[in-house]
Amino acid sequence: MIRIEHLTKYYGKTLALDDLNLEIPPGEFFGFLGLNGAGKTTTIKIIVGLLRASAGKVILAGTDQVEYDIAIDSEKAKAITGYIPDSPFLYDKLTGYEYVHFTGGLYGIPTAKIDEHIKKYFSLFNLMDAAHYLIESYSHGMRQKVVMAGALVHDPKVLVVDEPMVGLDPRSSRLVKDLLKRKSREGVTIFLSTHTLDIAEELCDRIGIIQKGKLAALGTMEELRNQAKDTSSDLRLESVFLKLTEEENEGLYT
After folding, report:
1. 129-153 CB burial, b ≥16 within 10 A, e <16
2. CA within 20 to 30 Å of 118's CA: 104, 109, 193, 211, which one?
């Protein structure tokens, strides 16, 4: 579960998030969309504890519904959260195998369990042959897969994903989509930010559109069509999104 209450963020005098409120129940696959500068990345960074809000709060909870405020119970909140960024930072002088072991060690995961996890996900992503190569030799797509394996090593109950398909070939993209859908069915709350609207339309149960730091639209595809004042059942998300954001001017912050 993710609950965002009156979230506000200033950069100096510039308002990036303006009293944002949103609740995502356990197991929901939620899409978060917006033009450049709308506040998507700011929201994500606050959710995962990389930024502090100017006001408001973010509450995270797993399937047991024990709630943690990311600003107050940071360690406990992060222990149930996985984060897959759009531009992952990796230690180039580690191997893929060593990186996932390092990540698992931060969460106190036993070595044997990490090895099982690596075998499962590296096999899925066709990385076993490269497991003991230095990450500096990996392509962007390979790096993205290693980050995903690391983000899932502690079995997070909340998963925040920013542009997960960047650099992935079509087969890998399909694998990631299927993996994320399976995690959602298992009760993991997924918060997905992407500019690839087809992905959001295919995967997400509900979609929120942020505009100038405020939530401009929220709902299922059918509900978004209604908000766009077009109930055509074949109206795609791209058209709905453009109608709902047609007056937005791009800002300074993402």
Report:
1. ebbeeebeebeebbbbbbbbbbbbb
2. 193
